[in-house]
Amino acid sequence: MKHDLRRGSIHVARAEHVYPTIAPGSVELVISDGPYNMRKAAWDTFKDWSAFRSWYAPHVEAWGRVCAPSATVYLWGTDDSASELRPLMREHGWTKRV
């Protein structure tokens, strides 16, 4: 489902289905609430952190394609999941700002 707004759009869908429809460099904000690897549900359980990073890798790569150079990514998770994803984000050119 897509909601068109005056200044943009909100997609309520699986991200991997939406990425191909987005023009390169046109996104200013990504809000991602993917798995945290807390192992409290089957969909949030990875055998190790490497598998967790592998799950996120295609998303981080897609963000690099669809996002403008000034874009912001809000990545929800735990302290552990953020620490595990930080090298992957940096590998794709993202920097952490506080």
Structure summarized in a few sentences:
By secondary structure, this protein is of the alpha+beta class. The chain has helices at 15-18, 49-66, 79-91, and strands spanning 2-5, 8-11, 27-32, 67-75. It contains three helices and four strands.
Overview of the molecule:
By secondary structure, the chain is α+β, with helices and mostly antiparallel strands. It is built from three helices and four strands. Strands 1-2 form a two-stranded antiparallel sheet. The radius of gyration is 14 Å and the shape is globular. The relative contact order is 0.19.
The proportion of residues forming helix, as a percent range, comes to 25-40%
Q: Structural class, from helix and strand content?
A: alpha+beta
Output the strand order for the largest sheet. 1-2
Q: Which range does the strand content fall in?
A: 15-25%
Largest sheet data: 2 strands, antiparallel
| Count of helical regions | 3
The gyration radius over C-alpha positions equals 14 Å
Shape: globular
